[in-house]
Amino acid sequence: MDELNEQRQQRIKKLDLLREAGIAPYGSRFEVKDRAGQLLKQHGEKPKDTLEQEKISCTIAGRVVALRRFGKAGFAVLQDGADRLQVYLKKDHLSEQAYTVVEQLDLGDWIGVTGTLFRTKTNEFTVEVHQLTFLSKALRPLPEKWHGLTDVETRYRQRYVDLIANPQVHQIFSTRSRIIAGIRAFLIERGFLEVETPMMHPIPGGAAAKPFVTHHNALGVDLYLRIAPELYLKRLIVGGFPRVFEINRNFRNEGISTIHNPEFTMLEFYVSYADYQDLIALTEELVSSLAQQLLGKTVIPYQGKDIVLTPPWRRWSYHQAILEVNALDPSVLQDREKALAAAQRLHVPVDPKASLFTIINEIFEETVEPNLQQPTFITDYPIDISPLARRKDSDATLTDRFELFIAGREIANAFSELNDPLDQRERFEGQAVQREAGDDEAHLVDEDFLRALEYGMPPTAGEGIGIDRLIMLFTDQASIRDVVLFPQLRPEKP
RNA sequence: GAGCCGGUAGCUCAGUCGGUAGAGCAUCGCCCUUUUAAGGCGAGGGUCCUGGGUUCGAGUCCCAGCCGGCUCACCA
Q1: Per the CB 3.0–4.6 Å rule, which of A149, A243, A270, A410 could disulfide with A143?
Q2: pTM of the prediction?
């Protein structure tokens, strides 16, 4: 803090000077009549003469992000949302008090101005200011004007500074908001009801993941931050809502990486009477139409490569993909020893005691997933790794399920829901066996969920989409931390 | 959790072989009424991440730790 004091003390001194001149350094209401972006759009292309004839008056507010003063006049650049507009501050045009403000102005301060639009000698679209209202004093200096703020730790810890200094970061989070709004509109248009289900669960369910634990004092019970909303949303299908969705946070007590944050945003939606094939079509339409709407195209750049979101996307069965990518004989899918040998040959590290489906899944993750750069629906997952999904009619060892991969990452997971309460109970019991065998992420039996299914759930298809990863794709970001406003970091030392 | 890389002024960064810690921007003073990385002249500003050690002497070498990034592990 001490090293900051020089600049900070200077600014506090100016703050006092403003007070002495009768100006509130932390003001109140200001009637903003115009926005910089809208002025640029409406008048920004008009030639000098036209602006001089029209004498357009405007009132805008914003943060001073550049200041070029000379003698008794100067230019400031105001940042108003995503837009920047230059204002001209000339002593002759301002009251004595207003010019006092100009003299004490620092980078970072907020001001409101009223004036007329014109073009400077260098043809810059500018507001000639006649009235100036001081709105708020910044006591800390802004990062350097040319390089901005690049220190990654500071960018994440003090996102407010990142947003001030880096317009492209501002843009990413604006896009994030528009993507989520677009998804919401898409679903509501198709008859979905948006719902909110509990974030605190007595039994963490709906996914295989380690939960965060918390405690409710009055009830005297431990609760878990949800790892997925799935089991609650299906209760609502039982309750008779035919189409529901929820966009909200899930919490998983696991590692942090460029594609994992402990809290992340998930869209889950459920469609009565539909199956997973219907969701394949819906997913293609949702993602490609969002791309068209927000980016104006369905072939989008991601980390130096083009991703083709134009439907239709590739469909590839889980087992076919494993066999084709590795040129394996189908018998490895049935024989644990053969699978183990194949894994070793392919340099896929596996526990020699692992079950057949675990070995096969390791091979899938190691060899197939990285190849799924263009959008691909991997279908027909084995039942052993799909405890909530409906069995295939044609093969009881597989499920009516798909996962969507783009850029080598899982983006969505969907299936025809298992609505047979007796089968579901058996699956939960199978999970309990896996849990006892040491898999602490196997699903827990949720008796109330089973009771709900026993009241009858219509045939239903459900899907979860990882919103942060989708946003990474749309905004061409390599790290989830760059699409989450306040990513999780170790607490700062006091 | 492991490996690699990084942490020096408010910000962006240099710092040679171990020998008094630097630049640009920002800040302060003076000049300047159309600039736009404005300009000119002058000035101030440092827990070199922290703690040990080696040394006559450490930003620099060694050890331990903290924080961050990336990769891996983990995460169906």
Answers
A1: A149
A2: 0.93
